[in-house]
Amino acid sequence: MKNKRSLEQMVEYMKSSGTHVPEWLLDINRLSSGAELSRDEMLEYAECFCSQARSVEALTYLIECEERFGLAANGEHIFVHGNVIMQIDKGVIETLLQCQIEATILEKRSADRYISVMQFYLDDRLKRAEEGSTWMVDFIDEVLISGSKFLISGEIPPAKEMH
């Protein structure tokens, strides 16, 4: 009974959160049945998971930047490299992740769609927890540093250098 109540609480939370969640994930009877997910459900779940993981990564990065650089005078998050200070927000970092990481994975593993992206986010979190990996923060830093260099130089990089 306790598991069923917990399941009901989770479904209520998902409904009230305002986050997009597949309808079948809100069906308590479906979830309680233990039925395996269809391929379409797995793909839909992976896409939903990636949206949440992207949001978590963006927020984690903003916290990391706040610890390293503080906040701008207006209270917004910033990234600092040399004499360049960029105001960044969750949307900027999410877009960066979509364009620089997810698009590349989706291009290389198109049949798996977001399942491969989900595995990437899970693997990165596991390496961070077990090994103290800073790969994600380092990667985002490098993209922002590269962008700041192009802003300063006034040059637009060829598309192949953006991936």
What does this structure look like?
The chain has a two-stranded antiparallel ribbon with strand order 1-2. The chain is globular, with a radius of gyration of 19 Å. A hairpin with a 2-residue loop joins strand 1 (77-81) and strand 2 (84-88). The model has no long low-confidence stretch (mean pLDDT 89). Helix 3 packs across helix 5 (114-131). The protein has 163 residues and is mostly helical. It has helices spanning 2-17, 28-33, 39-69, 90-108, 114-131, 135-153; strands at 77-81, 84-88. The chain folds into two domains: 1-35; 39-162, no CATH class. The protein is built from six helices and two strands; from the N terminus they run H-H-H-E-E-H-H-H.
Please summarize what this structure is:
This protein has helices spanning 2-17, 28-33, 39-69, 90-108, 114-131, 135-153, and strands spanning 77-81, 84-88.
In terms of per-residue confidence, which ranges show pLDDT below 50 for 5 or more consecutive residues?
none
Give helix and strand order, one letter per element, not per position. Answer: HHHEEHHH
Q: Report the span from N to C terminus.
A: 50 Å
Q: Determine the oligomeric state from the structure.
A: single chain
Write down the domain tally.
Answer: 2
The average pLDDT value, as a whole number, equals: 89
- Largest sheet, order of strands side by side? 1-2
The major sheet is characterized as: 2 strands, antiparallel
| Protein structure class | mainly alpha
Count of individual beta strands: 2
Q: What is the helix content? A: 55-70%
Question: What's the arrangement of secondary structure elements?
Answer:
Blueprint lengths: L1 H16 L10 H6 L5 H31 L7 E5 L2 E5 L1 H19 L5 H18 L3 H19 L10
Antiparallel strand pairs: 1-2
Helix pairs in contact: 3-4, 3-5
